[in-house]
Amino acid sequence: MTSMATKYSLSFTVFLSLLLILLATTSSGAQAIKAAHGFSSIEEATVHDIQRAFKQNQLTSRKLVELYLKQISRLNPVLKGVLEVNPDALYQADKADHERKFKAHGSLSPLHGIPILLKDNIATKDKLNTTAGSYALLGSVVPRDAGVVTKLRKAGAIILGKATLSEWSHYRSNAAPSGWNARKGQGKSPYTMGDPCGSSSGSAISVAANMAAVSLGTETDGSILCPSSNNLVVGIKPTVGLTSRAGVIPISPRQDSVGPICRTVADAVYVLDAIVGIDHYDNATIETSRYIPKGGYAQFLKTNGLRAKRVGIVRDFYNIGNDTIAAQIVEQHLKTLRKQGAILVDNLEITNFGEIYTSSNEDIALAAEFKRYINAYLKELVVSPVRSLADLIAFNKKNSKLERLDYGQDLFIKAEATNGIGNAEKAALVNLAKQTREGFVKLMTKNKLDAIVTPGNIVSRVLAIGGFPGVIVPAGYGSDRKPFGLCFGGLKGSEPKLIEIAYGFEQATKIRKPPKLTT
Fold first, then answer.
1. Residue 106: predicted pLDDT
2. Which CATH class is domain 48-361+426-509?
3. Which residues pair with residue 454 across a beta bridge?
4. Residue 135 half-sphere exposure toward CB, CA atoms < 13 A
5. Is 199 designated active site?
6. Is 7 a catalytic residue?
7. Residue 516 belongs to what H/E stretch?
8. Which is catalytic among the residues 173, 199, 201, 206?
9. pTM of the full predicted structure?
10. Overall average pLDDT of the 79-86 stretch
11. Fewer CB within 10 Å, N or C, the chain?
């Protein structure tokens, strides 16, 4: 015969079991059970999730790094998003864990103890190589950390390793596919196993496949926005000069920008907050620092960020080919923007749109600038087998068999043939400034726009030649199941408005989903 106490005990056990089952059927319930049993998965874990797990003693930085290293070991042989893993990553993790014990949690940066991957054109003065994916710089020694790396270390971030890229940031050969470099081979989008887009391909592949918490990429023209679009992640291409380019293997300081590639807008903003600001090795950051808002960028993560924003629609950007599914999704998103309070100004035109996208001005200017600045970068290296663009060309000719696939080096050869900023280059630069002034700037000011919105990264050329910022957010999948994003672009220093708009859109749609990987 069962006693009264036993009956109550059994009833409570049954009740608790039913409650746990009920909780598990809801997203909040799943989070509650996860919280009760500790941090169990890195899949889609945000910076906020990780910091909360740190605070609640459910996770350590060491354990987190070990989880990412395991994920890299499992997925990277196929995806090739990571070029090198930092042999000191676990040491840095232990250091972060030690610091967390003796410092108040609120006094630490949001990136403290967070593993980050850096595109392999961003210099680190440590055991990692900085090679732009080329054998030519393997074993070279940089004079110091890149400016953005110095800031990341100060914020307490863990340098997990280097991400792959299109070799030389896709400025070696037009024939080379996006995501390919000699050292690692062909990177692949985890969604399609195809084109990851470049040149910050590995940075996007890695965070999309949960091989890192967050990452850094660089853009000269499309190299953050395009891989973010193709890999269903968030990318921020900052105003040129807002983030330091010192210690970054250059193409052109006039267009080069360093920015975050992450899974969420919030994570990207936390990284942006950590890396902006003055660096005396990059004078452009001194002038551009006036754009940085007091209190940083995280304050603009507002769910109602779309309210009363004037957003322009230039239909020339909406040619999505024959992909009717993508076109329909984009139109639905435009309705969402309106529903969230945005004022859409439709059927606008950039009067010189055709000229911007067909002229050779950008190519002419970049060729001369690349030769000048890559020579300066190579000469400053402490140790290097190559000291000039001419040396690089000779190295590639001599070692073509080493690379397995030789896509040539037509862009290198074209750049080497230049002789400084001559009459042709000066004319090209004047034309680029005119195209910007009479095109995008006129469009934005005349219509009093906060931003324009475009599908994918087609707007990157306009933003690139003017040094303007852009934020791209996951938008969905086309008819071939290829991911794409929605891009918001604005004038220099408009990051606060772009962040409000992008975050408002992200929170209203929540398109981002992890890839279904069977590797």
1. 81
2. alpha beta
3. 487
4. 17
5. yes
6. no
7. none
8. 199
9. 0.92
10. 98
11. N
